[in-house]
User: What shape does this take?
Amino acid sequence: MKIWMAPAGLHIEPAMPADAETLARLHAAAFYRGWPVEDFTRYINDPKHTPIYVACDKSRRIAGFMILRLAGDSADLLTITVDSWKRGKGLGAALLQAGIEDLRMSPVTHIMLEVEETNAAAIRLYRSNDFTEISRREGYYPRPDGAAAAALVMRRELN
Ligand SMILES: CC(C)(COP(=O)(O)OP(=O)(O)OC[C@H]1O[C@@H](n2cnc3c(N)ncnc32)[C@H](O)[C@@H]1OP(=O)(O)O)[C@@H](O)C(=O)NCCC(=O)NCCS
Assistant: This one.
């Protein structure tokens, strides 16, 4: 099995079917609109198209995860989430690096993502991992107050 080192005594490995509920819970705690558990189950069961990387300890307690969607020479970063208690320790960066290393021998040449333009932590994470802004999408993210927030579209080449 693939495995990557991570900070705080954790490591990163591929998601397993039994992780779906934990991933849905972590995701729902971090985003205004969560996704159904069934979506996570579907992604986990299709690792060729939607690889999921989980950061966990030896007992497999999961502190964060990242989902990619692969299509031809492009990978979309569907989501990355770190448990709020475990943020700021380098886990987000480690998840990104694990995914990037895993794609090295694949046809993928670049990674794309959208991020809410007010999400300072995520934007900093992406900029310090060589993602650059290529465009902006108005009204991309729904918000609880009814107003929609703009997204930055970011891209990183793999070589
Ligand atoms: C975005 C997220 C995944 C980052 O995970 P993390 O484990 O805290 O990230 P890291 O510890 O690896 O930090 C990465 C960078 O972000 C910076 N950062 C972390 N928290 C920050 C904050 N609250 N404000 C500004 N910068 C922050 C770190 O200083 C670091 O920057 P550096 O590389 O220049 O030193 C995490 O904050 C999260 O889960 N947020 C909620 C979900 C989300 O918004 N996901 C992204 C959707 S596009």
In short: The beta strands are 4-5, 11-14, 52-56, 62-71, 74-82, 110-116, 132-142, 148-157. Residues 55 and 61 are 8 Å apart (CA to CA).
